[in-house]
Specification:
about 20% strand; Aconitase, domain 4; about 900 residues; alpha/beta
Amino acid sequence: MSTNSFATAGTLHVGDARYAVHRLADLAPPDLPYSLRIVLENLLRHEDGDGAAGQIHALLNWGDHSVHETAIDLHPARVFLHDTNGVPTLVDLAAMRDAITQLGGDPARVNPSIPAELVVDHSVVADVFGRPDARERNVEIEYSRNAERYRFLRWGQTNLRNVAIVPPGTGIMHQVNVEHLARVVMVDQGWAYPDLCLGTDSHTTMVNGLGVLGWGIGGIEAEAVMLGQPLSIRLPRVVGVRLHGSLPEGATATDLVLTITELMRRHGVVGSFIEFSGAGVAEVTLPDRATIANMSPEFGSTCAYFPIDEETVRYLRFTGRPAGQVALVEAYAKEQGLWHDPGRRIRYSEVLDLDLGAVVPSLAGPRRPQDRVALSAAKPAFRQALRDRHKGLASTGDAGRSKRVPVLLDGEATALDDGHVAIAAITSCTNTSNPSVMVAAGLLARNAVRRGLRRKPWVKTSLSPGSRVVTDYYDKAGLTPYLEDLGFHLTGYGCMTCIGASGPLIDEVTAAVREHDLSVVSVLSGNRNFDGRINPDVRMNYLASPPLVVAYALAGTMDVDLTTDPIGTGSDGRPVYLRDIWPTPQEIRSVIDATIDPVMFTTAYADVFSGDDRWRALDAPTGPTFSWDGDSTYLRRPPYFDHMRPEPAPQADIVGARVLVKLGDSVTTDHISPAGAIPAHTPAGRYLRELGVAPFAINTYASRRGNHEVMMRGTFANVRLRNQLVPGVEGGYTCFLDGNEQVTTVYEAAMAYRETATPLLVIAGKDYGSGSSRDWAAKGPALLGARAVLAESFERIHRANLVGMGILPLQFLPGDSAESLGLTGYESYTVSGLAITADGRLPVTVTVTADDRVFEATVRLDTAREVTYYRHGGIMPYVLRTLCREDSTLNS
């Protein structure tokens, strides 16, 4: 614990209970942002005299521009994971146990030192839909595909200390976190302190809406902090967002968050903390706050924090938290200056103002969450997007040639066209955690059914809420039958369509899309709509509120103006408009008040870690080390520690590198490491087929992340990837630069380069690695042989993941780019100046030689700890060497 050199240790009395605390009021200036007060407490509690005092002094001087270069070491209270990041994280820990055993150490040393909570929510797929048994059938399929992975998770839960697992079918991790797991204030060994939660999913920020500071980190970083390493970050900018007014009638929390996403991306908040303040905060309900905070990674910010106030305490009581815990949260927040005071003057880096009353119904798409478009402008915006795809038809002045492909659906002849909605999904933690938009969707469905409306037969509809509480209040309100009448049967409790586990389209739709190259659309209440993420056969994807998802299922096309055009024809033969069936705020509030109560939450989470009969019946392996099955197609021991030496080799320059891929702006981790279905014709699909895996059982990339052979073959394999080395080609292809410039798959090119020991380089534009905190977007390139990524800018989490895997992030100097420097990607590259100096640092810049061009690039190792990780070849080798040294010391 802390050396308490700042003399802040004290006692907090809450009723009859007493807690040790570090009193922030004794030290922190009153205008320090709320989020940074939590950071300050963390530094005080872990102060050990080894540079920590300097970090605390820098934080106390926050606001001085020079302190933003200061690195601070944070120690999270807990780590939060989901199964598709959690499985590879536990795979790595299992491999570390093997490696430390081989090096003569104790495998039990590889063990989480803080709580690690994992929710299994990313594996269920919406294979079956639109029928009463959809959920049951999808769960059966989920277990048949993933039983091997789930047995491995059971091994981890049994043999790794501090690992708690929420089994499948419970809900989505962030909704479970907000509704049940988050403590807001932690208690351990008599100390009370903030619940600083770091997660392996970028939307961990959803818990910011509850007053918990937290954000997404890479799975590689998570492994390190689980094993006792601090997370090193630079002191951030803190952007204050003052809220005013209240949402107008007809606007939803989804519309608000899409508006904020657009505003923040336009302003530029990458790497910043965002903090909401002002009188308007009290007008924002806790579920709305969580919806906003959830989208923080879409802003590009590190977190989006709402301070604790009366609404926080009300929600904790409402969701059934114990009375003693609620009392502690309130008392602690007030004692530590963490209680929101709208009149307090806070020292922010900059301040933005947002009038809630200016929010209008909106969507975002067709490719990025920040591309908001007002509902009234959605039709022309869609047509423009379609024109952009069919550039050869731009002179016609309309959406292009109508294809009108005839198909037979449900025994009736109809026709499909560009813009038809192939997927309408009420999905994701972002919106299914919010009763106001979910009840609105149910009421809109009720009103539509009563008017005689039906979904269009080409639309695949699904309902995948993030919590069982949702279906409980749907049932109690009598809304479930109406949703099911429109095809929105429960498909499962999990991420599903939002994460790319949408399952196949309706067969006839798939055939028509592929044969006639139709640009069909998905509409989902999710948080991401990147190219190729939702479904490989769907080119255009729009984020929308749950009631708008229902509306577009009824309309069946994006080529409609829902503010003026009829949504359909009623049973009386008259046109029905969206305004005719849209529920009023009073109706929504009335249903919420009448149907949702704390008992629903306490009942839903009473036995949250036990699981159903399927989970309990799994035959879990035992023993301190995992017994790897050489025939497994899901779990393979990764090669990260093969031939690892006790000490790292001296750092050397990168000589004679070739470019594996050359990419443009806004390349996401979905482009680098796909999460959706594995197409059978790809290198990953062929590999599995050759091992005897049936096409139906190939499953998704997300489910196969415990097998590095699959993931290497899936790296840069997104069906929408545009590699500038092969212009005009989409997908995982590149040019193998062996003198003949052969076009081949990225994987096959990488393996050919490996034969000649040729190092590889990735070149990219702005915002490289945006999107999910996906560790395989760094692991995959590392295993393919990438030594460095040269980009105009990096998204925060992905840059850290690259460092964590020993890949050097290099950034073009301001004003430079591949285009301005005339780089084609066909050059041979050398990066000079990588020798570590005597004081353990790398130079700020290095020299890059590309054939006859020479230029400087910035080394994006932002902290001394990152330099150390890079020198060791990544976080995992560093931690393993540290554990071995500690074992040697203990045994000597």
